[in-house]
Design brief:
The structure holds three protein chains of three kinds. Chain B is α/β, with parallel strands linked by helices. Chain B is built from eleven helices and six strands. Classes of the chains: A mainly alpha, B alpha/beta, C alpha/beta.
Chain lengths: 227, 277, 275
Amino acid sequence: MDWILQFLPLGTERISIWIGVLCTLAIYSLLYRENPIYRFFEHMYIGLAAGYSLGPLFVDIIYRYWIEPIWVQGYWAWAFVVPYGMYLYFIFSERYGWLSRIVIGTLIGASAGLFFQEFSSRYLPQLNSTLQKPLWVSSANPDVTGWDVFVNFLFIAILLSVLTYFTFSYEQRGGVKRVATVGRWFLMIGLGAIFGNTVMARMALLIGRIYYILSDWLMLPLGGGGG
Amino acid sequence: MQTQTIWQRMLSIDRRLLYLLLFVNIVVFLLAPIRMPASISPPVQKFYDEIEKLKPGDLVMISSNWSASTLAENQPQLEAVLIHLMRKKARFTFISIEAQSRDISYRLARRVTETTGYEYGKDWAHFGFVPNLTVAIKGMVNDLPSTIKQDVRGTPISQLEVVKGVKSLGQYKMIIDVTPSGTVPIWISYSPKGIPILYCPTSVMAAEAYTYLDSGQIKGMITGAKGAQEYEQLLHIKGLGAPFANAISFSHVLIILFILLGNLAMFMNRVQARREA
Amino acid sequence: MTYQHAQDNWFAAIVIGFITLVVLVNILRAKLGAQLYIRRIPGLDAIDEAIGRSTELGRPVTMIPGLTTFGVVAVQALTIFKYITQQIARFATPMRLLTGDATVFAVAQEAIYDAYNEAGRPDLYDADSIRFLSDRQFAFASGVAGLIQRERVAASFMFGEFFAESLIFAETGNMVGAIQIAGTTSFTQVPFFVAACDYTIIGDEFYATSAYLSREPVLLGSLVGQDIAKLLFALTAVSGAIISTIAGVDSPIIKLLGQPGGWDAFMQWLQGGGR
């Protein structure tokens, strides 16, 4: 009896859980077949997602970074910032569409400038780590074993063959084409490993939803010693 | 009318039946009282060792960008990480790049910290959400108080004891990124020199992070629910990682069975067709 | 491991400067009329075949740039979609372009209008065929899946940046029997496209496809410049591995090639200060 009373939607939290479960099951109904319930909840989800973001966007961004510095702290120079950003909406105007290009240019210019730092920080250390692959056991690298040397040779071979596959400014023929084909095979093996990882992620998404139904809605205890 | 062979029937199974079998499999193994031990993988061990190096009072930035959809992977990760940080008496601040993740991480952190006496504002804080992580990181590197201004409750940063005297992200001792999206390259690209970055991705994002782990750009990684299970084992706690990893493992067994049966049916069908021809 | 300023490693700054120069020189060559060669990507034949099939079936074509925010990848995706639109304009095949970013939506409207104009069929342009559904990942995925199912599309082109929603698109397309061509720089989504789509354009092939189709000097020059950069990296990797073998992984030359602080370490070594 207690369980039934706790289960029913008799409080705000329980009502929100019931609504969540209803939405979950409605969206999953697509797996059976396309139906009006799915369509309704799909459109509701899209609208909700757009609307939900507006509140935090205003409070955390517009108010925090624009309204408060201007009205409370007196930084009146910031007043041009949002109108400048809103020039982007002129993209819908045939006559004044050129105004939006100024904003797009600013965005692209800023990201192009930032990219130099991103390239250096993200890829140069990886290049450096690629260089630290000794190809022989020697006194210069006392910790390197025979197995490490084998792995390093494999690494360099895969790196060169895949780089060859992704070159486009010449016709790939003969030996180069064979190397590129080997690169494509290595690529596919790597993609298979990524696929396996991603299947795990997809299962986890489903498990998350089923956990919500079992634990939050039906209030069943989880096995495995957890929850 | 030609009767269908078993192999043809297998290939024409309604996919909805397979969905139902998967659903039942997951329900059974989520509820089953099975506790499987996990072998600790090197990235998780490195993650654990890196947090063990923290001293009491060290400040950690947690970038929490997940929402309800990736709850099964990111929630047990974040819960375990918070428990470990609190054991080391480290202070931490949160930042998010979307509204839902801001709310979810704030509620989770409140729930977990209540059990250990960690006080909001003094031991931890949530900076709310920022729409552009690149700009936020660059801003925090130069001048953190001016970039963040106030926390999720509207309290000015200057009044938060946890970040008293902190002028830059460079004063943090660690960055932990708990995310289902590709935000760790942004942290790697723009965060200050010398601050270790730890990564808690969903399984799908882990694949491209191994290059960063190999090069030392990230110091440790907990991958999905399986990684969370291993981490809980290292911390000797009971969390959601273990039951989720159980369910994932047995669902994989079912999928492997489907793949084997499907391929066998396809192969036998071809053999039969060649015989008939 | 992070670079904050060029002085963290001047050698890295020089390398980046050199690569930038190579790209700019090749762009200039392309603009001055040099015939830069790009090999044909096999996926291009698949695009034409898919368009032909949807025309035969009389069902629409969908073009999905994914959740790509406005940037290089989005512009290249729209270049490919422009080509596809010019092809389908010849047969008056209906199309839907579904975006998850408001800026991409606005730019896509212009691009598709230009495509119909260039194909001589401005009357076929329908502003409603280009839609912004949602910038939330799974809301966008639900909207796209619903539309693909309802309209029973015959061909689906997915070019851009994708995340977890990629398999939802590909599986839904499979369910309605659509021919699917995908191209993405999001490496983690490529396996799904390879498994579920009829043809997949992987990684850098995406940039080569847009350069090949548009023949724009900037794209052509960038691609040739990238190839030279790849050759440079390949030579550096091999020579670096040899230097590591002979002089050790902590050698100042290895540090110079990519580590922050490597320039100072190398200079110190040159001046006889040891490692």
